[in-house]
C-alpha cells in the first residue's frame, strides 16, 4: 500500500489500484503531452520570496467567491466519468468537499447525476455544462441545475471537439479491441473491479441518461459524446444561456486576454483560466503562464479562477500570486478519490490546507487577500 504523506502520493496510489486504461485516461493529455507537462513544470518553477519576522502567528486562509464564504480559496473541478474510478465516485468527492464547506463542481459527463449528489449532500454545488448539439437538452440540464440548487454554472468552452489523446489508444481506453483489453486489465485489478462493477448494479449514466437510454457501455458513452459536442457555438450564444441561468456564470477554458474580455462583455461573473489540464490543444501556454496577462486584463471586472497543473497547496498559493482569486483542483482530487475514496479527498484537502498555511507563513502573508505578485521572486532577484 502506498504511504500518503503528500498530495503527490495519491497519483502513485491511484495507479496501483486502477486498470491502466483508466489511470492513463486521467493522467494523460493531448498529442505529445507537452502542455500537460508544462502546466506542472511552469507552475513548479515559480520561485517564491521567503520573508521572515512578519508576524504570521495567525494565518487566514478563508475567502469569499460568488458571495459564498469559504475556508479555502479552492473548489473541486468538474471531472468526467469520475464514477468509473470508485463506486459513486462523484458523490463521495462532493461529500468530502462539502464537509469542508468547499464547492464541488459536477460535470455534465459525471456518472452520478445531479439528483443523486444533491440527495447525498446539501453543500455548495456548481454544475458544469458542455456545449452540446441538442440545445433543448442543454436547457433541461440548466433547469435541473437550478432545481437542485446549484450555485454557479461552469460553462466549459474549450471542447468544441475532443483533443487528440493518443495515450488512450495505447492504453485500451479507445482503439482496436478496446473492450477486450479493458476486461483483461480489469481482471488484474480485482479491488477496483469488485468496487465499481461486480459488487452490485453498476452505475447508470448520470446526467446523460435521458439522451443515452440504450447505451450499453463505455464505447457508446464516449462515442455519443464525441459526436455531440458542438463547434458552432459563438459568443452571442451566451445570451440564451444567460437568459436561462440567472445565478453566477463561470466560463471555463479561457487562455487568452481577448477571450477573457469577451467573457466579461457577455456578463459572466467568472472565468477559469484553463487549458483543460493539457487535454485539448497541445502546445498552448500553460495556465501559469497565461494567467498574469488575463488577470491584468479583467481582474477588476470578474472573478478569475485557474486550474491545470495544480497538485499541491503550494501550487494553489502560486496561482493566487499570479492573479487568481480561487483555484480548481482537478486531477488532484480524482487521484485521491480513486486511491482512497471520500476519505482520500478529505485527506487531500487537509494536506492542501496545511501546505497553503506553511507557504503563506514562510512568504510572510497572513491572509489570502494579501497574496499577490509581491510574494514572487522576480528575475531581477535571480540574475
Ligand atoms: C470523447 C468525449 O472533460 C475530459 C473530460 C470529458 C471529456 C469527454 C470526452 O476527459 O477531458
What percent of the residues sit in helical stretches (DSSP H or I)? 40-55%
Order of helices and strands: HHHEEEHEHEHEHHHHHEHEHEHEHH
Mean pLDDT: 94
Helix/strand-derived class?
alpha/beta
Concise synopsis of the structure shown:
This is L-lactate dehydrogenase (Cytochrome). With 383 residues, this protein is of the alpha/beta class.
Q: Keywords, please?
A:
two-stranded antiparallel ribbon; 16 helices; alpha/beta; 8-stranded parallel β-sheet
Task: Give an overview in words.
The chain is of the alpha/beta class and 383 residues long. It has 16 helices and 10 strands. Helices cover 44% and strands 10% of the residues. The strands form 2 sheets. It has an 8-stranded parallel beta sheet with strand order 3-10-9-8-7-6-5-4. Strands 1-2 form a two-stranded antiparallel sheet. The mean pLDDT is 94. The site of (2S)-2-hydroxyoctanoic acid has 8 residues, from helix 10. Its EC number is 1.1.2.3. Its cofactor is FMN. GO terms for molecular function: L-lactate dehydrogenase (cytochrome) activity.
